[in-house]
Design a protein that fits this description.
Two copies of one chain form a homodimer. Chain A is of the alpha+beta class. Chain A has seven helices and ten strands. In chain A, helix 1 crosses helix 3 and helix 2 crosses helix 3. Strand 7 of chain A pairs antiparallel with strand 10 of chain B. Chain A binds a DNA duplex through helix 3.
DNA sequence: GAGTGGTCTAGACCACACT
DNA sequence: GTGTGGTCTAGACCACTCG
């Protein structure tokens, strides 16, 4: 009998981790192809893929579409309790942020949105869709719903970089309470496409409801993050 | 040619979702075995398993050890900004909470812990490990590190149900600032075992550093949650 | 056009859970 | 003991990316 001992996915994980830790592979570097790894370690693609998925779950590597596997750069530290802007805090962490406006339209609140925002059905809103990333990698898509009633003419402003800055400067409106809601799930087909991830990729959904100083709802922000791109930090003082 | 069209994992997902939505399967119900599903839908176990993993990522079903797949009950809504206790808010949401003390020992801060807590290396601490769940399902493990210096004799108290209550009532100490840190990752072998999940299961890591009113660090809380068991809600007032 | 990741087939063995 | 989930082998085809 030639009885070759089966190669476990755990050993493939160990091997790949060591490559990354040794520095043979740096953040955003591409890993060798699945077939090449399999051949090198004398195993099958299924086992190699299993190992890759484990590392992906740990946030060590990530996938980009059908282009391959890459080493994950540091997570973006995001503190929703600090009044800071994406473009600023990513830069502060030594990475290059980018922001792309995908859509800006006037809509009317449907039943679902109205419920989430606590406004009447049919209330006029401005919907803004953005894609944001760090370096070469898109990290989240967001959908922002703004109440035109409280922010007249907001649809004509440049909102690509920061909505909060416009609200503060152009409307002399300060934020009051913010309600955050976070859940781990997986990406829809359309969101996955935008984030250059396979459908079903593990994601973090953040829903943020912002009020003004008088307690009126200003905006609803729905974010979908690649799970491995985010580290959430919140500071509470009671 | 007999050329049977390949069955896609997407169609298996659709089929299982419909079973759950129709009410054929209720929360915590066990799904049929992988082989049975495969045979019923004329496909292989690999494809069925792929579908099950997709539903797992979405949080629709969960695994328990080697016992099988089950329908996920509602997520526990957890608001760290409210002064509430696990046992209370789970009950409030109509589920039966449980809490089990796994360990309680006196230790000295090692380098890693000292750094996280901002205390000197070697500072005496009380380490408490607990396992908590809802219904029949364990949902998170936690490791609590308490500063004996500020909480003398804390190791002799009953801490199974609520540390915060003891601190408040027995030490007349109020909490001040709380720093939260959240990240999505995967379970270690030991944590997975405690949570009756396979190693590598997707998890949410929550790190909570609590200060007293004077700004002194009181405790460090390290929690590992099953990703599908938690919905985090935070209310911030600026 | 060559090569890659994404997916599916059709088996197999093992360790553990349940009865 | 029986059956289950967990894992691995050894192929195959397709759709897409990249050069």
């Amino acid at each position: 009998m030639t009885a070759r001992k089966a190669v476990t996915s755990a050993s493939v994980v160990t091997y790949l981790r060591s490559c990354i830790n040794k520095g043979d592979l740096n953040p955003d570097d591409k890993l060798p192809s699945e077939r090449e790894i399999s051949e090198r370690l004398q195993t099958t693609r299924v086992t190699t893929r299993e190992a890759l998925k484990q590392l992906e779950a740990q946030g060590v590597i990530y996938r980009s579409n059908r282009r391959g596997w890459f080493v994950t750069p540091d997570r973006i530290k995001y503190d929703p309790s600090r009044a800071m802007f994406f473009m600023d805090y990513v830069a502060e962490q030594g990475q290059q942020p980018f922001s792309r406006e995908l859509q800006k339209t006037k809509i009317k609140a449907d039943a679902e949105i109205a419920l989430m925002m606590g406004v009447p059905i049919g209330e006029p809103l401005v919907e803004l869709q953005r894609l944001r990333g760090s370096g070469v990698r898109p990290v989240y898509v967001e959908r922002i719903l703004l109440r035109e009633k409280l922010l007249p003419g907001i649809d004509k402003k440049d909102l690509e970089n920061s909505v909060s800055r416009v609200i503060r400067n152009d409307y002399q409106t300060e934020y009051g309470r913010i309600d955050l809601d976070m859940v781990v799930g997986s990406l829809s087909v359309t969101d996955a496409e935008l984030l250059q991830a396979p459908a079903g990729y593990t994601s973090i959904t953040i829903q943020r409801l912002s009020y003004d100083a008088k307690g009126e709802v200003l905006e609803l922000d729905l974010e979908q993050w690649r799970h491995d791109a985010l580290q959430l930090k919140v500071s509470l003082s009671s």
